């Protein structure tokens, strides 16, 4: 009976995040915009980030998809705002490991996203759960690549 109540609690948190997602809706003035889709099921996410001085100051998203995909995006934005880029990338890696059924040392750091650990039992849903997190990684990593290219152009001009 206790397991059933716990399952119901997990489902309720997922439904709450998907029905009333945190940080949903796009804004002007954010520094990064990434759009990814999951061609397997049709989930689409557009992620915006505001990164200043290596800190994720804001994260917003829009898109459409299943409850797992939308809940995960909501949970991801909650988890990464206020984190450094490195911390955000570590969270993304931990989340990826978690939903693949691997051990993660600090579940608390993932916040509500730790609830999605059960996705590992449904391999077809892993891509749904990781879509927003992959967009986060892409946004941070592309920014670093652009910064490196800009720096190289400046050095070559001198």
TrEMBL record:
Pinpoint the NIF system FeS cluster assembly NifU N-terminal domain residues: 10-128
Cross-referenced InterPro entries, in alphabetical order? NIF_FeS_clus_asmbl_NifU_N (IPR002871)
Coiled-coil-forming residues are: none
One GO-annotated biological process of the protein? iron-sulfur cluster assembly
- Which GO terms of the molecular function aspect are on file? iron ion binding; iron-sulfur cluster binding
Q: Which family does it belong to?
A: Belongs to the NifU family.
Name under which the protein is recorded:
SUF system NifU family Fe-S cluster assembly protein
- According to its UniProt entry, this protein's organism is Vagococcus elongatus
């Amino acid at each position: 009976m206790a397991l059933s109540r716990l399952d119901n609690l997990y489902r309720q948190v997922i439904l709450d995040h998907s029905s009333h997602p945190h940080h949903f809706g796009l804004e002007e003035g954010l520094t990064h915009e990434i759009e990814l889709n999951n061609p397997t099921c049709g989930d689409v996410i557009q992620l915006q980030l505001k990164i200043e001085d290596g800190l994720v100051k804001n994260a917003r998203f829009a898109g459409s998809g299943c409850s797992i995909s939308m809940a995960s995006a909501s949970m991801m934005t909650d988890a990464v705002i206020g984190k450094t880029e490195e911390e955000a990338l570590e969270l993304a890696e931990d989340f990826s490991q978690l939903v693949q059924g691997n051990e993660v040392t600090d579940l608390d750091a993932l916040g509500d996203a730790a609830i999605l650990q059960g996705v590992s039992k449904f391999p077809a849903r892993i891509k749904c759960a990781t879509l927003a997190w992959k967009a986060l990684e892409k946004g941070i990593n592309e920014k670093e690549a652009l910064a490196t290219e800009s720096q190289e152009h400046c050095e070559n001009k001198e």
